[in-house]
Predict the structure.
Amino acid sequence: MNPLNPWPLESSNPLIAVLVSGGIDSLVAAHLLKQSGADVTAIHFLTGYEPEDRAGRLEKLFTQMDIPVFIFDCRTVFQSNVVDYFTAAYLRGETPNPCMVCNSRIKFGACMDYARSLGADAVATGHYCRTTKDPDGVRLWKGADPAKEQSYFLAFLSQDQLGRARFPLERMTKDQVRAHAARHGLVPIESKESQDVCFIRGEECADFIEAQVPAIPGPGPIEDMTGRLIGTHSGLHRFTVGQRRGINCPAEQPYYVAALDMARNCLKVGFRQDLFVPVCRVAQVNWIPDRPKGSMNVSVKIRYNQTEVPARLTALGETDAVVEFVTPQFAVAPGQGAVFYDGDAVLGGGIIRAE
């Protein structure tokens, strides 16, 4: 038995495994479940990119709550499914969202499998969202806090994963979570908000990619929208669609990255007005719960920190779709997640592809 796992998992109540990172959200989620009378255990999964002392500090923290902590080493699967995916996407000229992949393949994939091997019926996290079940399947909904709402990150989860997912913070705001922690003396070991890319700490994204893939293409030409050579870039992995910083080509207006031509190692740039597009294609769509028939009006998020915008969604086959924006959108980046909403309900999400 792992020395950090001293409790036997024997109870008449269904067991819920809470994935804990050391932050306030997962800490409060675990405490709320414990308060409700549920049989709770905690799982901390190792990625290989966390501080070395985190597991021990978590064990001490959750011991005070009478919650056993299991340490799950998923460094190999995290590297292959999240980090390698992230770097490969950049080398294809895409802008990936590793959190969406981590949720489907690691937290509610490998970690859920591990939790079930311990006898757990469900996996809980500190995400701000909620699920319901009806005759058509499990539905995913926005959380109660508009400033913290995280359903976007869970749009790739399958019906089985959503059916076994629990979100104790579903109807809480961040301020209410902080107040609950203060009221019960819950002090997280991580005081900062979690990063979008948890495995990149204290360095630039491009430097991280270079460390992962040393033989990376170097400098190349910069062209404007007419094909005119206007400069030299320092490496395409240093740029994403919509980026303004680092182009260093003086003009009457600022240049923005319009596209990355990987075959020619060429950075295509344009003025801001050149980057608005009326339509985008989405592939590898995960529908929640079912693929819509025909076309429908929806709202769409094309990146997490954007408010969703109105659009017309048309499903093409089982896993492809076309999104026609009511108003053309700026810097629609291939590789990012596009998530479709009907009001507060998540209809599904997929990967934006270059036209």
In short: Confidence is low (pLDDT under 50) at residues 1-11. The chain has three domains: 15-183, 218-270, 275-353. The chain is about 25% helix and 30% strand.
